[in-house]
Amino acid sequence: MDIIQTFYDDLATQYDKLFLDWTATTKEQAALLDGLFGRFGFGRTASVLDCACGIGTQAIGLAALGYAVTGSDISEAELTEARSRAAANGVAIPFARADFRTLEEVFDQPFDIVIAMDNALPHMLTAEDLSAAIKSMVGRLKDGGLLVASIRDYDALLETKPPYSPPYIHDTAAGRRVSFQTWDWEGEHYRLVQYIIDDGATLQVSKFPCEYRAARRQELTALLTAHGCREVTWLFPEESGFYQPIVVAKK
Contact, 6 vs 28, CB < 8 A? Predict the structure, then answer.
């Protein structure tokens, strides 16, 4: 996990640059997740563990809606940023450093909902690590609870193995910002470099390397079922409104 922790530690103070308006995004994604939770029978009294919380993109928006949210992440730098942003947004969220393969080492209590959004699960670079992560997340759910995660559409991406992601181009007060990733594939793994280019009064280029393993939906479905989930549903962007496919699994 060293390359992953370093990636997010280094990216923490610039992560919000990946969005046109990070604050607006927290509200939009919270509204989408709120609707999804309601569809599966959970209201705003539900307890939520965001076990890949990053700088708080989903956790803060959900807490603002009234959910009892706990956040965890492997990156201490991102947790520092998340705590600051939660305070600035007037929400109280307990944050803890935790590897989502071993959540039981940090959290004794079960939750109604566990989420891991924004392509967090493919950071597991082996089938064994992915299995451990799913087992750990399901293990922190109450009976009848929901695991909600989003990933890239690797079933499609593995067919073509594109060398880069489409760029995001945002106009800012200082000029123009471009963010994109380059991808170097080796089998089901790919090494990426996240670029953030700020073309303002001066040109600033930041780059952050990382690695992913492309997990297919069938593999994730099988692991969720094997580790105690009795219902597994996949929702695609045209249905959910979210930018990545989402898996919802009920324990």
Answer: no
